[in-house]
Write a structure and sequence with these properties.
Layout: H1 2-21, H2 33-43, H3 48-58, H4 65-70, E1 88-90, E2 93-95, H5 99-113, H6 121-131, H7 138-148, H8 150-163
Antiparallel strand pairs: 1-2
Length: about 160
């Protein structure tokens, strides 16, 4: 019985150590899929998996010219009516001081669109399908990216929960 208790204690303590060893200042983080997803979760953006899929699509797996020149991996334009974290506009798109600012701006965007009515996941997918893309298959492309990254998303969700303990 003492051995089992000791083994369980070691497992629990190592899990707690792993949880807290992954915390670091967001401003010092590199621009990776993992850090982007964790920033989306930490920021409190609704439907993190959908937004992550948008980022993957819009940024060409975080490699697009707009991503590199404007720190803008969501194709965000300069807003006319809402608050923004953008520092300017370059080539018709919002430009951000850093990649984290793009995520913060997306939260401001969501807050703006949700100010009158909260949306379900299905409503949100339909909304971005119409608003975010001229392509009729955008919703299906988003769902495909989520499916292709299912394991990654589950792992990142687990790490996020761990980091909030």
């Amino acid at each position: 019985m003492k051995k089992i208790t000791l083994i369980l204690l070691v497992i629990i303590m190592s899990g707690i150590f792993l949880c807290f060893s992954n915390t670091e200042n967001e401003k010092t983080k590199q621009f990776t899929k993992e850090n982007v997803y964790q920033s989306i979760k930490r920021t409190g953006i609704e439907f993190a998996d959908i937004v992550f899929a948008q980022i993957i699509l819009e940024s060409g797996e975080l490699k697009s010219k707009l991503t590199k020149t404007n720190n803008n991996f969501l194709g965000m334009k300069m807003p006319e009516k809402r608050e923004t974290t953008a520092v300017g506009e370059f080539h018709g798109y919002a430009q951000y001081a850093g990649w984290e600012d793009c995520i913060q701006d997306y939260l401001l965007y969501q807050n703006y669109i949700f100010r009158k009515k909260k949306m379900t996941r299905s409503q949100y997918l339909a909304f971005i399908g119409k608003k975010y893309s001229e392509c009729g298959a955008y919703k299906n492309r988003i769902l495909r990216v989520i499916k292709e990254n299912r394991r990654f998303i589950k792992t990142q969700d687990s790490l996020y929960i761990c980091s909030t303990l």
